[in-house]
Each structure stands twice: as C-alpha cells, then as structure tokens.
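A further point concerns the way the authors explain their paired sequence and structure data. Since the whole study asks how a given chain folds, the encoding of that fold should be made plain. A single example would do more here than another paragraph of explanation. An entry of this sort, consisting of the sequence and the corresponding backbone structure tokens, reads as follows:

_____
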Amino acid sequence: MNNHTDLSRPGAISPFPPETPIGMAYVPFQQWEAPLPENIALEKGTVFPSLFLPFERGRGLA
C-alpha cells in the first residue's frame, strides 16, 4: 500500500466520502505526500508522485 493511502496513519483521510452510494460519481480526496524535487517535477509535469500517470501506447487494448 502506498504511504499516501495508508489509512492506519493518525489523521489519515479516506479517499472515499463516507457512505459513498453505488453509481454516484465522485472525486477521491488527494492524500498528502512528499513532493518530488523541482527538477524531477518539471520533467514529470507534477510535484506529486501519485499523480504521475504517463500515457503508455498500446496499454488498455484488448
């Protein structure tokens, strides 16, 4: 489990709202995590490691 989603930490917030109904759209709360160094963040386009989701050609195709 990633540190930013470790709900066993004191003060951790669940990414899901309480009583999330089925079929209801929502955006999970972003958990705090240590930001990337500036030079790496500029290359990746984000300061948060969990938000770095590069497009990989061919993935997701059946």
Observations:
- The chain is about 10% helix and 0% strand.
- Helices lie at 38-44.
- The radius of gyration is 15 Å.
